[in-house]
Design goal:
7 helices; 229 residues; globular; eight-stranded mixed beta sheet; alpha+beta
């Protein structure tokens, strides 16, 4: 019964906070958490994102601690950041939301770290949209794991985005069909102090703020390492 109450409360909590703006210190914590998730996953060796996928990455989005709860109706909600490759490195980050739901016999709640990797220009264009739904507006596939990523997959031909999740230490590709990704303009404005156009930021139009440098450099470091292999 206690688990049922927690799950129901989680669904109400995520719904009520869906459009709430965050304080700047909370946004900094979110960026710091995104860096930590990226580092921890890439240090997992044979369970990490394959280098041959990172080599082709055009954008990387990290959503730390995405919440999932269910009591017949399931809901998931998370907030994170995305950076994209530009002609002179990786861009300053912008903030995004991910939300979705499902219906069926289900119960429980959990927290999951989520990573989305855009692997071509189409995937990058998805990240520039104000809103898109995975599976409907953007093709996605559960990404392979391991150093080489040679597992049978059609991501090279069909997928615009590869998705990964980590729950209780387990890291694997995940099916996110039906999940909506939206720009979080309020949080982006709160972090930068002024309204920002997502396309301008992700194309490298503004400098990376000092608070975001560790995250952006972490993504760039793994990208460079992948290119060198």
């Amino acid at each position: 019964m206690k688990k049922l109450i927690v799950s129901v409360c989680l669904c109400f909590m995520t719904a009520s906070n869906l459009f709430a703006a965050s304080k700047k210190e909370d946004l900094q914590a979110r960026i710091d958490a995104a860096k930590t998730v990226m580092d921890q996953i890439m240090k997992a060796n044979d369970k990490s994102i394959p280098m041959n996928i990172l080599e082709k990455a055009t954008c990387v989005a990290v959503i730390p601690g995405m919440l999932k709860g269910a009591f017949v109706f399931g809901a998931q909600y998370g907030q994170g950041v995305v950076t994209c490759r530009t002609g002179h490195g990786w861009s300053a980050p912008v903030f995004i939301r991910a939300a979705g739901g499902s219906w069926g016999l289900q119960i429980g709640g959990q927290s999951t770290d989520l990573i989305l990797v855009a692997v071509n220009d189409r995937g990058m264009q998805d990240m520039l949209k104000s809103r898109f739904k995975i599976g409907a507006d953007a093709s996605a596939a559960a990404g392979p794991v391991g150093r080489s990523g040679q597992a049978a997959t059609d991501w090279k031909m069909n997928a615009e985005l590869l998705s990964y999740s980590r729950n209780k230490g387990l890291f694997a590709g995940i099916d996110l069909d039906g999940t909506s990704i939206t720009q979080n303009a309020d949080d982006t404005e709160a972090f930068y102090g002024t309204p920002q156009n997502f396309e301008t930021v992700l194309h490298g139009g503004i400098p990376v703020p000092s608070g975001a440098v560790p995250f952006v450099m972490t993504v760039a470091r793994y990208f460079v390492a992948a290119k060198a292999q």
